[in-house]
User: Which sequence fits this backbone?
């Protein structure tokens, strides 16, 4: 990489790339700089064109290598962050950006319609297992979302709800019929 290309970066572009190297999104960077997320994206895209790379992580890595991996970290957020009172042991610790490898794939994301098929660079894969085998309700209660159900569970819930509606309707019809008989006698 030519130092001439890195020298052409503006200070705003450098700041944005340092934050990208720290694995921050444009929405996280924007309030720190007092600009809109779209402006952050424009700074990063211009820096990517200047450096001749195809994705933001590669541009950030080039700048970090040029400045040395021991470059000063980006400035802390303006507003103090409230520390966690309790952190669940299930929450993974944040990885050091220097330990992260290059992105697996860049370019347009392909979506196949199934959850978990594709991930952006900023996302991490995980699976969630319910403790004790508790059933997942198709209602937005607590941390549950209807989109958490796979197609088999959705089909089971559709059949269960259809049977429940049929039984309830049968009970209603039987009740009305019993009332009609009582009023005739």
Assistant:
């Amino acid at each position: 990489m030519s130092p001439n290309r890195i020298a052409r970066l503006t200070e705003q572009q450098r700041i944005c790339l340092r934050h990208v190297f720290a694995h921050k999104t444009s929405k996280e960077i924007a309030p720190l700089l007092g600009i809109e997320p779209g402006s952050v994206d424009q700074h990063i895209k211009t820096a990517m064109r200047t450096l001749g790379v195809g994705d933001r992580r590669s541009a950030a890595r080039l700048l970090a290598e040029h400045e040395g991996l021991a470059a000063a970290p980006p400035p802390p957020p303006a507003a103090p962050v409230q520390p966690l009172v309790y952190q669940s042991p299930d929450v993974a610790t944040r990885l050091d950006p220097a330990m992260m490898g290059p992105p697996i794939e860049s370019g347009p994301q392909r979506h196949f319609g199934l959850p978990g098929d594709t991930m952006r660079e900023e996302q991490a894969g995980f699976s969630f297992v319910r403790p004790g085998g508790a059933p997942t309700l198709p209602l937005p209660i607590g941390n549950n979302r209807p989109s958490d159900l796979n197609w088999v569970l959705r089909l089971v819930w559709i059949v269960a709800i259809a049977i429940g509606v049929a039984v309830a309707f049968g009970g209603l019809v039987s009740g009305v019929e019993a009332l009609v008989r009582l009023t005739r006698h």
